């Protein structure tokens, strides 16, 4: 307690969250990610999520925190309570999706796989994707290639590269955002 003002100094996590909310501070966000990421994963796994599902929940929660930071009010809730509530809601959503029955496969009329027009369209789309990937930052492109083309988990990428999970996830998120933008621009052309 600060004797001169009569108010308590906020905890570091609250200060980081306020920096994210007010200044979109990436360093503060990385600290939040490093602090809460492992804790959120452990909570999700104790709640019944697999390791992969828990990582997805953490990624989704942290992305939500970044996008909804303007909603954080330290006067209404502690940062930890706010973050864990978001995580709890994501886990509930996961379990609801899991409980839904799979729709039956709809068998339609058989299509000719050698349809020339479809093959050309797929080749053009693949070429656009390769061109968009080539324009990415090298670090982001490597992360996307490992995660999506190499089908590696974030932990496997971490073990291979030695990079922190937060860095890996940030590069993936930023790379995917840029890819979406690049591909949207290509579709307009």
UniProtKB/TrEMBL annotation:
SUPFAM superfamilies: Sigma2 domain of RNA polymerase sigma factors (SSF88946), Sigma3 and sigma4 domains of RNA polymerase sigma factors (SSF88659). GO terms for molecular function: DNA binding; sigma factor activity. The keyword DNA-binding applies. Residues 128-179 form the RNA polymerase sigma factor 70 region 4 type domain. GO terms for biological process: DNA-templated transcription initiation. It comes from the Bacteria. Residues 32-100 form the RNA polymerase sigma-70 region domain. The keyword Calcium does not apply. Gene3D superfamilies: 1.10.1740.10, Winged helix-like DNA-binding domain superfamily/Winged helix DNA-binding domain. Keywords: DNA-binding, Sigma factor, Transcription, Transcription regulation. PROSITE patterns: SIGMA70_ECF. Belongs to the sigma-70 factor family. ECF subfamily. NCBIfam families: sigma70-ECF (TIGR02937). This is RNA polymerase sigma factor. It comes from Albidovulum inexpectatum.
